[in-house]
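assembly run, all chains below
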Amino acid sequence: MFEGYSLAELGSIFAMQGFAGLILFSVFVLMALGLAIIFGQMGVINMAHGEFMILGAYVTYLCSTLVSQHAPALFPFYFFVAMALAFVASGLLGMLVEWGMIRFLYKRPLDTLLATWGLSLILQQIFRSVFGAREVGVVLPDWLMGSVAVTDSIEVPINGLFVMALTIAITVVIYVVMFRSRWGQGVRAVMQNRTMAGAVGINTEKVDRYTFGLGCGIAGVAGSAFTMVGSTGPTSGQLYIVDTFLVVVFGGAQSLIGTIASAFTISQAQSTMEFFLSGSTAKVLTLLTVVAILMLRPQGLFVLKVRR
Amino acid sequence: MKKTAIQSGSPFRVTGEMTGVLLLALFIVVVLPLGLDTFRLNMVGKYLTYAFVALGLVLCWGSAGILSLGQGIFFGLGGYCMAMFLKLEASSPEATKIQSTPGIPDFMDWNQLTALPWFWEPFHSLTFSVVAVVAVPALLAFVVGLAMFKRRVGGVYFAIITQAFAAILTILIVGQQGYTGGINGITDLRTLKGWDIRTDEAKLVLYFVNAALLIGCILLCLYVRHSKLGRILVALRDKEDRVRFSGYDVANFKIFVFCFAAALSAVGGAMFTLQVGFMSPSFVGIVPSIEMVIYCAVGGRLSLLGAVYGTLLVNWAKTLLSESFPELWLFAMGALFIGVVMVFPNGLAGLYQQHLAPHLKRALSRGRPGVAAPAATIIPPHTAAD
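ok done. output:
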């Protein structure tokens, strides 16, 4: 598969595909981080996670249309507002869902899976009724267009760079919130030993609700970032949900570092192979490898040692 | 007969179940063919093929507590095995002489294949194909089950991995267009050993074959359920560790029930291909696989008969709604998923047992006061089960 390419060309191909992989990686990480919190920490299977992401994407789309119509002067900066709104919208919906549905199902993970799948179908249909079945894309402000030429043969798109910077920033924020703040300590305490955490005065129900909301909010931000690299349709979320679950499981459900590492491995493997093989073969090979590794090592790459 | 059954306690469940099977058989074999035209009957036949999957799920998920979200894989594999045989018969050299390579299926010719791929060769034989319908999916389920259950992977992890398999298989089928027919699937199937399967008459025959197979499978499932094996399955669902400490190899039982469910689904898939006349990846992927779970859940995840009625009901509602209000269907389906989990977790069968069965019992024993319903409730459940 390498014949016909010179060494320099190969280097450029790997660099460019590697960068394309990094964008995929960013989207994966953003989606998987929310899921890692909901699934890894809370043990809830949220099949509607993709739809929370798409909600964020649609919020961004709405913002971009509204701002370009009513306040064109602010257009270069709408994206930051859109992202915050996406976080709030998805987070609020998440808290509502937790209150109305998830909290009754903590003891029955498989049933949560089915119920959230039902939720995802309903959300999809709502998106379709409101925004139409066709995919929509946002208009990027000028400063995000174009690309930076690193060398003669390697070009790096700016929006990709921006998404990556965003991913890094959000990852850092989540790390601080979950592992360095008092609130995060409370969350981890509840997840490790609910009864004991309640006994020392933590309001566990409130922690559950806000944690779920946080996870969904991050999904909304992921959707917001997603609009910069792809277009959004009512069913776009469903395409990513299994991949994202695999990312989280592959990385080891409780470990945020593991999630990031596995998102990196999977996205890089996929995009590098995509250049040489057809897209579908690359995807099949990646998924098969992941599943095979999971069979050998069901607990995932990184394991947090927790006494049960 | 019913009354004596109530009095003696224990045989009531078995006779009750047999009456249920008989009623279902009457409904499928007599009532439906008399009440519906050929088109609608063929549609019911299609729904009934999904009921095989639901039956498998009742055993796998309801009894043993293993939720597989990849039953579409096995349904699809069974269907594809059948479709490959029918396709080869439909693409005899005479029928395909306008192609650049006569004698191979049309989609291979369109994809510039010049010879039949090796894994298609054995499907010239009907015997091999029929064996493959059951064997290929069961073998895959065995490999997956062996790898997962021996390592004690279960619950949600298992569900996610089966889902990943469903995704992999769909991508593979869609991607390898020359070998599998791609997204369109294997279409234009005509005859089975020279017998045209597209005529109304053939469809009627196939409907009855399908119904007979379904009843047979229900009886088989009932047998498995009432055997010692069935009890162990329930035990390992409720307290897996205790079963393990009692000296059973839990993994083997799980592998068995997973393979069994896979084989059942595959039979359904093969009958689907025969009745509908094509097979495509749209029955393999994640979405159809989860949809099949809802058939079982609506009927009641613990009830074999409930699963069949649930399948019929959900599909009937789907056809009805998508014919007149297509946008409502997803809402209804979503609400069904949520409702079945939150409001009535034991489905139709649970509702029947809770609300209808006591009234029925009372009505049946009204003539003889004193014997009546309490007799059945006094007997503690575990002695009643013996």
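The radius of gyration of chain B is 22 Å.

Chain B touches chain A through 43 residues (CB under 8 Å).

not gonna interpret more than that til we talk
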